[in-house]
Amino acid sequence: MTERSVVHASFAIERRYDASPARVFAAFADPVAKRRWSACHDEGGLGQHSLDFREGGRETMRGAPGPGGVYAMNATFQEILTDERIVYSYELLRDDLRLSVSLATIEFRREGAGTRLIFTEQAAFLDGHDKPDWREQGSRIGFDRLADYLALEQAPA
User: Fold this and answer.
1) Fewest C-beta atoms under 10 Å: which of 21, 51, 81, 145?
2) Which of 17-21, 37-41, 104-108, 115-119 is least confident?
3) Among 74, 68, 70, 42, which Cα is nearest to 142's?
């Protein structure tokens, strides 16, 4: 019998973007935009993605970022306040193995002509299959990609 364990962890990431809260929020709400920036790994890409952006709606992502198996994220939106806040819960799986279950909050605060984004995640990491620092690193990569996406979308054609 395998010994079970759980590690509880919380982390916060803050970023400032040179875009209005409406533009930054839209990068989360629009399925095409979200797919363009949200993969946290270069290798393998995002694969499948669906987004039903409404309270009670779901977001799913499925892909294979490396030889370690197929990863899936299944989220449910708990609260959406346009241009202000998104709260969602999600599970992360590798193949059929649940790695973690999380509650995440994204806040969008106007700061001059830009936006201060505050992301907070509270997670239960299950049975040693994932680690808090790995998750935080992957989240930071995603928010870096959001900055790149917003800069490209703002650039003159």
Assistant:
1) 81
2) 37-41
3) 42
